[in-house]
Amino acid sequence: MVIIYGPGRISMADEFFFLTELLGLKVYDLKGRRLGLVKDAVIVPLIHPARVDRFLVGGGWAWLTVRHDQIRSISLDGIYLKDEQLTPYHSDEYMLRLVRDLLDQQIIDGQGRKVVRVTDVTFKIQHEDNGDVLSILDIDIGLRSMLRRLVHGVVPPRWIRRVQTVIPPHSIRWEHCSILEADPQRRLRLNISNKILERMHPADLADIVEDLSPDDREAIFETMDSEVAAETLSEMEPDVQASILESLETEKAADIVEEMSAHEAADVLAELEEKTSEEILEEMEQEPKEEVEELLEYHEHSAGGLMNTEYIALPEDVTVAGAMDALRAHEEILENLNTLFLVDAGDQLKGSVPLARLFTATGATPLRELAAEPLLHVDVEERQDRITELFDKYNLLTLPVIDSEGKLAGVITADEVISLLREK
Amino acid sequence: MGPGIITANVDNDSGGILTYSQAGAKYGYLPLWTLIPITLLLIVTQEMCSRMGAVTGKGLSDLIREEFGLRTTFFMMIALVLTNFTNVIAEFAGIASSLELFHISRYISVPICAVAVWFLVVRGNYRSAEKIFLAACCLYVTYIVSAFLLKPDWKQAAIYSVKPILMFDTDYITMLIAMVGTSIAPWMQFYLQSAIVEKGITAKEYVQSRLEVVVGCIITDVVAFFIIVSCATAIWSHGPKDINDAADAAVALKPFGNYAYLLFSAGLFNASFFAACILPLSTVFTVCEGLGFESGVDKRFHEAPEFYWLYTLLVGLGAGVILWPNFPLVRMILASQVLNGVLLPFVLIYMVLLINKKGLMKEWTNSAMYNTVAWVSVAIMIGLTLALASITVKQMMQADATPVRSAPVAQVKSVPQVKSYDPGRHALKADVRESHIAHLIRQTFGIGKFAD
Fold first, then answer.
1. Are B264 and B246 in contact (CB under 8 A)?
2. Is A1 within a domain?
3. Tell me: the pLDDT tens digits for A1-49?
4. The CATH number of the domain where A338 resides is what?
5. Nearest residue on chain B to A242, judged by CA atoms?
6. Which of A266, B136, B276, B399 lies in the 20 to 30 Å Cα band around B166?
7. Alpha carbons B217 and B205: distance in angstroms, whole number
8. B307 pLDDT tier (thresholds 50, 70, 90)
9. B292 and A141 in contact by Cβ < 8 A?
10. What pLDDT, on the 0 to 100 scale, is given for residue B349?
11. Is B399 inside a domain boundary?
12. Domain match, A279 and A202 both
């Protein structure tokens, strides 16, 4: 079935139904006697991601459960059953109750990349041979659904359907929505995956997660793939990073920190309380741990605190062809690489070569001849403002940092300087 | 500087300064007794808000929406926007009247300040400006100094600080509602909770914030105490008087001689401008949060149109109303605080219901003492509002009984000033004189028949 998406489609009135209209709808048995009113609708994501599995009907003392296969027809006039064997309602953890768990709550709109509040739910009605079936089509936000909810019960539903068409609809397809649930057990039972979130750009995801409550944040990070979690965390404000890592299990926090680049990991750990950051370091693998610990030694606002250790240093007598081989071997850091460094046998910094110059030189050219003049570098103790000044003056993209013995210790990149300036 | 202290300082905005001045100028030391219960209630409400913010990580309107649904939220937001709109007007009125002391026309000061507020918040660097505002809040110290220099009757002040006096009189009840409304303004509860959430304070770090909130509340009311005492000594002791413009209120600082106007004007201007930056923005955030619109000054206009429209309307109309010829600045400020007081119990009801939800607050729900204070306050505030309404209606019915033409405006205005006023004696006597505040409220809501 082709669904036409846009203002026109709501006019096909019979095909659609709103949660607002469903609530309070009368339910009739086989003989046309009124059993009660619809109080809530339930989907069971493990069985079907969108189909309304059960209706909760209130009448008398207790609520009753109506299964989807017990229904003959659903319309604005009411719900007519074809089977009267109803069971009393009892809550179970596998059901997502639309009114209780979804309506008026926040969800993540995976396509619009933001957190939104659910105002109404649009269902699609399928008239199948043995009865009508409702499944969730859209989550409604915005003014149209707001009007519908505000005047429902005051104005007849058919009028509302007609009047609301003047306001453009604002909805999100159900398959692009990711619901929020802080309880990890219940996340499993409701079959909530982080697929939608993990497909987003880490920077967008970071913005979204920053908007959420601490419990929801924790739940997402606890269940998210560590690599994506690390990328997302890198994009966040330092205080939020700290509060997230502190809320996670130490083991999970260590997994995430391992996935981060060493200097970002060091920045995050420096934000944490001493005890927490030690616990996390304790849980980390030996190699990333040592790298991070080394960086943690430096003062946060010095060159050492700003630099990262992802760079390529080559022997000073290497040729262009040799350099190309080295690059092929380190594909994982190519994306952000724009400079190669030359060091002598004692790791002393001897030159820096802009990557682009490799492409115009012949394979036999020694890299030394391509080096940029003058060779700029700073000491690990250098102050921040001096570094930004150098970047500005020489229009740098990278700046090598050397330790007290003149050895190459790391590099500062322009994006780090931009973040620094934005903080001011 | 945390949210608690900032909120405390915004609390003494133009509405605060003038309401307390009016209370002191008109009733002397009499209203001082209200400060202790007000402080208690202020601490209780603000502590509740910050606790909810810290534990749930959500704003107050978010929680109302999630727990009580769209319709409740919608009507709450309508009431809040209307009340806050009068408060925005009051802030611009504060700006206008503070500068009029220096003969700067409101037709110049208000438009410039409105544009300045808009740009400072939307495009400028509000965070840095906030530090200046906070520093300038030290101007309140002038009231403390002034109170001591004026040599007030400390004995009376002490007695009336603990001796509750109730009068069944429109003016007095109006003033009580306004004093509660200005100290515990509904919008501040929304603002404080969002500020706590924004700052990322969690339940664990909450203890420190609680202390800050309590200190903030006490500062607010200490300032209030000295404003009332100064006005009582400088104005009321020479004959009870209504505050009609900023010059009247500036008299409270007369020990500073020629600088009194300057100090008063600077203090009032800073308070008004500070609140004019925070109040409309906080209102719009609250509404957008509750109704689920995109919000934030980091968003572009087309990303958050509702946010920008509402913000611009609040600032634009709030300032625009002031430019109405002969707009009664000070009266508007006082009336807006009464509206605050009327809305407060409804906000409180939802707060108490929310904070007692186990599912939401876990082990952080209210203690019995808190609930008692909150419910008693709700009952008192609703009681006061009903009393005010019933007196006003009764007076209106009396006024309606006489032909409209025989009640010209002049007659209402010519009601003589109250003679020498001994609070002890008059306390017992109901004074049902038409008050200018009640008069204004009626006019504002169009329920009186005064225009002839």
1. yes
2. no
3. 444 444 444 444 458 899 999 998 999 988 888 989 999 999 999 999 9
4. 3.10.580.10
5. B200
6. B399
7. 19
8. very high
9. yes
10. 94
11. no
12. yes
pLDDT in tens, B162-195: 888 888 788 888 898 999 999 999 999 999 999 9
Q: How far apart are CA B236 and CA B252, in angstroms?
A: 10
Residue B310 located in a structural domain = yes
Q: ∠ CA B246-B250-B253 to the nearest 5 degrees?
A: 165
Structural domain boundaries, residue B295? 3-378
Cis geometry, peptide bond prior to residue A288 (ω within 30 degrees of 0):
no
Give the pLDDT confidence score for residue B74 in this predicted structure: 95
CATH code, B138: 1.20.1740.10
Q: How close does chain B come to A46, measured CA to CA in Å?
A: 25
B-chain CB neighbours of A104 within 8 Å are: 65-66, 69-70
In a domain, A307, yes or no: no
Pair A101, A165 in one domain: yes
Contacts of B56 in chain A (CB under 8 A): 213
In a domain, B77, yes or no: yes
pLDDT in tens, A386-423: 899 989 998 888 999 988 888 888 889 888 888 888 87
Q: Which residues contact B445 (CB under 8 A, 6 or more apart)?
A: none
Tokens 């008069």 locate to B439
Same domain for A166 and A254? no
Question: Which among A204, A213, A423 is the top mutation candidate for probing chain B, defined by the most B β-carbons within 10 Å of its own β-carbon?
Answer: A213
Q: Is residue B413 part of a domain?
A: no
Range of the domain at A227: 193-297
Q: Could you report the per-residue pLDDT of A52-80, keeping only the tens digit for each?
A: 999 999 877 789 999 998 999 998 889 99
- B98-104 contact pairs (CB < 8 A, 24+): B98/B14, B98/B246, B98/B264, B98/B265, B98/B266, B98/B268, B98/B269, B98/B272, B99/B265, B99/B269, B100/B245, B100/B246, B100/B329, B101/B246, B101/B247, B101/B250, B101/B261, B101/B264, B101/B265, B102/B261, B102/B265
Same domain, A245 and A99: no
Number of compact structural domains in chain A: 3
Residue B23 has pLDDT above 50, yes or no: yes
Residue that terminates a domain, selected from A297, A323, A357:
A297
Q: φ and ψ at B240, to 5 degrees?
A: -60, 145
For B61, counting Cβ atoms within 10 Å of its Cβ (0-12 exposed, 13-18 middle, 19+ buried), the class is: buried
Write out the DSSP string of B28-72. Answer: TTGGGGGHHHHHHHHHHHHHHHHHHHHHH-S-HHHHHHHHHHHHH
Answer whether residue A185 is part of any domain. no
- Cβ of A150 and B69 within 8 Å? no
Mean pLDDT of A101-122: 90
Number of domains in chain B: 1
pLDDT on residue B416: 41
Q: Are A57 and A148 part of one and the same domain? A: yes
Average pLDDT over residues A259-263: 84
Q: Do residues A292 and A351 share a domain?
A: no
Q: Which of B70, B74, B285, B300 to mutate to test the interface with A (most CBs of A within 10 A)?
A: B70
Is residue A184 one of the residues assigned to a domain?
A: no
**Average pLDDT of span A320-331:** 87
Residues from chain A that touch B66, judged by Cβ atoms under 8 A, are: 104-105
CB atoms within 10 A of CB A132: 17
Closest-CA distance of chain B to residue A249, Å: 16
